[in-house]
Amino acid sequence: MAWTGAALGEAFDLGFAWDATSRELTGRALDLANWQHVLPGLPLPAELRARLAATHPRGRIESLKLGWTGARPGADNFSVLARFSGLGINADGAIPGFDRLAGTIEGDARGGRFELDAHPLALDLPALFREPRIQVDELRARGGWSRTARGHLLRFDELAFANPDAAGTLKGSYEYVPGTRGRADLEARLTRADGTAVYRYLPRRIGDATVDWARQGVVAGRSDDVRFSLRGDLARFPFDRGDGAFRVEAKVKDATIRYVHDWPVIEDVDASLVFAGRAMQVNSTRARIYGVALAPVKVVIPDLLHHDELLQVDGQANGPVQDFIRFANFSPVGERLRGFTDALDGNGAMRLALSLRVPLRRSHDTTVAGRLSFLGDTLYSPSLPRIEQLRGDVEFTGNSLTASNIAAQFLGGPLRIDALTQNGEVRLLAQGRATAAGMAPWLGEALGARLSGQTLWHGQIDFEPGGERVRVESDLVGLGSSLPAPLGKPAAQALPLFASAQPLPDGRVHEVKLGRLVGAVWRDDDAGRFVRGEIRFGGSAVMPADPGLRLAGSGRGLDISGWMGLLPEREGGAQLSTIDLGFDSFDLMGRRFQDVRLQGRTRNGLLRTQVNGHEVSGTLTYRPAGAAQPARVSAQFRQLVIPDPAPAASGDDAQNMKASEFPVLDLVVDDFRLQDRPLGRLDVVARGAPQGLVIENLQLTHADSVFRMSGLWRDGGTGETRADLDLNVLDAGRFLARFGFPDTLKRGTAEISGNATWEGSPADFGFRTLAGQLDFKAKNGQFLKVEPGAGKLLGVLSLQSLPRRLNFDFRDIFNSGYAFDDMGATLRIARGVVYSDDFRMRGPAAKVNMSGLADLRQETVQLRVKVIPKLSEGVAVAGALLGGPIAGVGALAAQKILRDPVEEAISQEYMVTGPWLAPDVKRLSRTKAKQEPAEP
């Protein structure tokens, strides 16, 4: 029976012949896809018809001759000759599926040959792989088949294939034995393979956990040399009993392996990968974790088929300490240290020996054991001093960490560290010796320079679930301190130190005690920012309930200015909220105030403090700096007495707040006194600037005078104050009496203006370093009769206290006190010595001219004094009485034109030298007076 036609597509030929013992099917140009509708009408056995329907043949058969004996074709009764293209069938049971296969096949049940060529080819192998659909870009194969005593043997003489995952060749055979899985004898080689695709080609018999690990664990990798061998009865695969062979060997390059999901990956892996029997093993020749070199590393899955597959990783690592720290931070090892290594850094080399056991179905049950070796490393953290020359081994497991006698250098001395695990928590025990030189880099230059010697200490760190708990103790014996009071001490004196830090759910709490002198407790948030705390002097601190920093206690002997000069500024530091401090003495700006009490609180951003003491009474208000405004201190004092310099601040190394760091000062004092001298009301406006403290305005207002000053205080080196001065004296007698010179002058007004400089702060005004120039004017006063010991320089200037010789010459003028109409001079001052060449006094009875110098420190003078009795007007009056007005006017004019010849005739000059109390007075002859210079 034969058909010729095109009802099913293009023209084709199909024939079917049969007799009592044989059947034959022939065809040409057959498109199998269209024959599914014809199959029900064909005279085919039901089983064959069902098989064809299930496999759904498709493609084109160029020519076909299929014959068989009996009712249906089988492996022992067929003959075939076929040429085909685009051929495909669906997988059915053990029969694989394929698409787009082209080639020829010729033979019968005894044997035959085939040639295949596909571009591309799709394979469907559900009986072998979990992802059965495999795309092959290129396939070429030649082979054949033959009958054996047990079945049929399929030979692959040559097979080459390529797809995106791999490219290679295969040779060998497969013996089909009915009722069994058959036997294989295959050899394959891949010249290109992508490691990330390995999981797709692992047989179904390999456990799901292993396949999942291969899918997730092989992040990258490639190989150009993969060899595959499979020999034996496939029913006994994977031949772990030696009755066959299954082996895959691959030379892996540039691989990245995620061996456990929550551990750092292994990168740059060059290794040999071996599947042998039921085991998998990876031996690396090169690998790294971060910058840590791993060699050798061995990764093993001993049993790929076991229901509880176990991944074993064993290896050694060598590399820089920074990368070991990263490894600790990003692996479960860091969990044991509770984040302690998060901010840690360092340099040097380290060594790690590591052993991991990972149940692939239960990775949370991973066990780890290892040894971490420090090889003379340096570790440092922002919150801790450097640890140097660190040597020793740390043994660890998944739930323990131990170490014994780890040695290092810390704080300038030896350090020993031991570690142990108790109740699942790691504890570090440390003991060492700290030296002043070793602490200086950590404390800072200013504080470190105040320490000397060395002391022993011990400490403990507990790594708890919430974070580390730290405790440090020392008696500080052997450590000398010249820190400001109260922390100065000789080396032999004990001062117990206790410091601790412990975790909280949302931060940490810290505590520091130094004997009974000072205690501090404060709390940080989880970002390390200060939240609240207290510093208490003379006792243990107590955590306050309100945010901010509280200062409290008895600051007995506390040198505030000394500490302000030593402590560095801290960005984002504590905001002072409350202050309640009492001081028996309070050192500030080189002065010692007695019995001072400070009580205040911050409200709405302003710290308002009541200040009471022996020398001070009033209110201070502090406004911290803002985005557009500097910090400001405003003071309203009823009384402020500047005491004598404090003994502790008299040395050259006294510490004060830097003038440039002063906030804006706005100070008003109703009763301002310098030691025991009342100065009146004080108004000051000043501000810190890079060049020092700028005094914009300083005014002292008293009933007898008004003093104004502006200038600059530079505190670098010995310090210096430069000022423009203006003094307006309303009652000179009362003014002098207020400054310790009573009964030296009666009435009088005065004006002094100019500039001056002196060493130190404005409060350190003194004659020793005084320099500058002042214009001096006075009017309508009278020198009173005063003894030299009381008025000193004033007694010299009044002339009445000079020796009797001068008094004898001008007894009628000076004996009862010289009255003056005006007085003036330009005073030039250098290091406490006053120079003038134009000192003039004019009174009703006489004129006095002086030139020379007065040493304010040595209390000596070198003066040239000219006393001129005022007689000119009297002569003119007498002339008017005797000769009439015209004669009087003529006499007066003659006197002036001739430069007062009468007064010149009766004037006298003197040299006054020596101490103020008893100067030496020498009368100058007229000849000598003319020859001598105007200034001494």
Structure description:
With 936 residues, the chain is mostly beta strands. It is 12% helix and 55% strand. It contains 16 helices and 52 strands. It has a 52-stranded mixed sheet that branches. Helix 13 (872-883) runs antiparallel to helix 14 (885-897). The longest helix is centred in the C-terminal third of the chain and has 13 residues, at 885-897. It is rod-shaped and about 180 Å long. The protein starts with a strand and ends in a 5-residue tail after the last helix. 26% of the residues are buried.
Given the structure, what is the number of helices?
16
Strand content: over 45%
Shape: rod-shaped
Low-confidence stretches: 1-7, 649-655, 872-884
Gyration radius, rounded: 55 Å
Distance between the termini: 158 Å
The helix fraction, in percent, is 10-25%
Q: Based on DSSP secondary structure assignment, what is the total number of beta strands? A: 52
Average pLDDT:
82
Query: What structural class do the secondary elements suggest?
Result: mainly beta
Q: Main β-sheet: number of strands, strand sense, barrel status? A: 52 strands, mixed
Provide key terms for this protein.
single chain, rod-shaped, mainly beta, disordered N terminus, 52-stranded mixed sheet, 16 helices, 12% helix
Short description:
The chain has 936 residues and is mainly β. The termini are far apart.
Give the helix/strand layout:
Layout: E1 2-5, E2 12-18, E3 22-31, H1 46-55, E4 58-69, E5 78-89, E6 97-108, E7 111-118, E8 121-124, E9 133-136, E10 138-147, E11 152-162, E12 166-176, E13 183-194, H2 208-217, E14 218-233, E15 244-257, E16 266-276, E17 279-289, E18 292-301, E19 310-320, H3 321-329, H4 332-336, E20 345-347, E21 349-359, E22 367-381, E23 384-397, E24 401-410, E25 413-422, E26 425-435, H5 436-443, H6 445-448, E27 451-464, E28 467-474, E29 479-481, E30 497-504, E31 507-514, E32 518-525, E33 530-537, E34 548-554, H7 560-566, E35 576-588, E36 591-603, E37 606-612, E38 616-623, E39 632-642, E40 664-674, E41 677-689, E42 692-702, E43 705-714, E44 720-729, H8 732-738, E45 745-759, E46 771-783, H9 788-791, H10 793-797, H11 804-809, H12 811-814, E47 819-830, E48 833-842, E49 846-855, E50 860-869, H13 872-883, H14 885-897, H15 901-906, E51 908-915, E52 920-924, H16 926-931
Parallel strand pairs: 33-34, 34-35, 39-40
Antiparallel strand pairs: 1-2, 2-3, 3-4, 4-5, 5-6, 6-7, 6-8, 7-10, 8-9, 10-11, 11-12, 12-13, 13-14, 14-15, 15-16, 16-17, 17-18, 18-19, 19-21, 20-22, 21-22, 22-23, 23-24, 24-25, 25-26, 26-27, 27-28, 27-29, 28-30, 30-31, 31-32, 32-33, 35-36, 36-37, 37-38, 38-39, 40-41, 41-42, 42-43, 43-44, ...
Helix pairs in contact: 13-14
